Amino acid sequence: MCGIVGYLGGRNAYPILIKGLQRLEYRGYDSAGVALINDNGNLVIYKTKGKVEDLIRVSRDQDVSGTVGIAHTRWATHGEPSDVNSHPHFSENQNLALIHNGIIENYQSLKTELSRKGYHFRSDTDTEVVIQLIQYLMDSQGISLEEAVPMALQHVVGAYALAILDKNHPERMIAARKGSPLVVGIGENEFFVGSDASPIIEYTNKVVYIGEEQIVFLEKGKEMRITDLRSVEQTAEIRELEMSLSQIEKGGYPHFMLKEIFEQPQTLLASMQGRLHPELGVVKLSGFIDNRKRLLSAKRIVICACGTSWHAGLIGKYLIEELAHIPVEVEYSSEFRYRKPVLFPTDIVVAISQSGETADTLAAIQLAREAGAFLFGICNVVGSSIARATDTGCYTHIGPEIGVASTKAFTAQVATLSLIALSFAEQLNTISESRRQELVSELQRIPEKIAKILGHDEKIRDLAKTFTYARNCLYLGRGYNYPVALEGALKLKEISYIHAEGYPAAEMKHGPIALIDEEMPVVVIAPKRGNYEKILSNIQEIKARKGRIVSIVTEGDTDVAKLSDWSFEIPDTEDCFEPILSIIPLQLLAYHIAIAKGRNVDQPRNLAKSVTVE
Ligand code: F6R
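That is the input. Now the predicted structure with fructose -6-phosphate docked in place:
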């Protein structure tokens, strides 16, 4: 959601903070701000509605000296995007400044109480109460900031990653986390703070992922100190970052999204490397092998996820049920956590999340933990909250995904689910050895087949221009390609703002067919296998109503192509791996339509990359 960054050391903090904000801007981009304790010892804040470049403009003629600072890029929750609601926020006496990512749920009652005591609120945010509460505790109890922060955080209900500066102690910074991610980078006599490691990687690869309900005390020339909210000392586990700088830069592409679409042959290889062994016809997943007994005794698998990860989960259901014969349910985390799901200790709950920080998915697995289920995580971000909150799992290993619209994470999640389904199938003997060998060998060939599809990018770009007029669009698929229809529609709507719906093709005649006319583009995913004959008749039905058909067909198939206004070929593959190929032209189509409409594809309106609030 919001991005936070901090610096404390010997260098000029401002350029480090600005660069850090630019790296974190994918998390939120409706306002930005920075607080510095400048060389004159003043605590100054510059902030504005808009993007980081607007902040640079606003602070151009200001004093941006100082070797300690915090900065923030916002995704508004409480209070509209405006200069005054932007972070950082001052405390009443302007000696303290705070940045925050998360939501303070009891802010209204705290605000009323503090207002009664004479504290003035300048913004509509939930955040401002935290810094006012800290100052109130310092004033009323005559205690230090170090004592007031844990005390204040025990009064706060909600989620936070926050960082605080104190004008009277320019050599110190305090940061804390509950529910929202926080990383501290350790350099030579300097510290970096970030919502993730992307603002840190340029300076150091030594990091500490701050744990739940932990507070970190940073001071120049001293070791970092971590406590829990009751001030009990905790150990800091220093880890080495695997990420590289080139992974978080655009590498010559105009947008992160396009770079990430084109990276998919490599990212798919990376997510299967060391796991897929075509020479032996087997899959070796350490998270599976280490927990084999527990996993194999499962009577049922429940997958929890949101958005694109939910679509991957739906494909996972088809894969696991077909190959391993284990019943699978797929749940929206946000629904699952608030209804009364029936869970058994024999269940496995699989949480799928690129960021590993999605608040609803985290809450869903907490619920499953209470029911005694075994928790398996499929995450991309190493050390993320969901990765740590699950019993075991697999990382997708695709490097940072920065474009707000998920692309390479989706294909890697589906590939990982394929590996899991094959592992179950092998152990449970639900498919023959020769069939498993065929599937393993085919999975190995998928990256080069993706590369082939990417070679047709230009054709898709040309078609995209034709569709900028569209106000609605239907995506249809059957079997394994039904979730792809959902995902293709999601990609289009989130970055082009064209309304799009995905449907199982046969459901069309139960309602959506009423929408079809000569204005309506209908994207049909119709590869040669699976329910090919059935989808051919669905296409006939659209044709009869003059819908404009874009089809995704298997190489060499002319039957569907003849009925379509435009068609794209994908290489032939096994039914169960088709989604990894058929989504590629749909990602490109959404990207090019959005570009043709002049949209900001990496930062679409109202969205943020990591949804750490519910
Ligand atoms: C869509 C998209 C979102 C995410 C969803 C879950 O392109 O990116 O729908 O898939 O917010 O996020 P993660 O996977 O981080 O839990």
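The chain has a mean pLDDT of 94.
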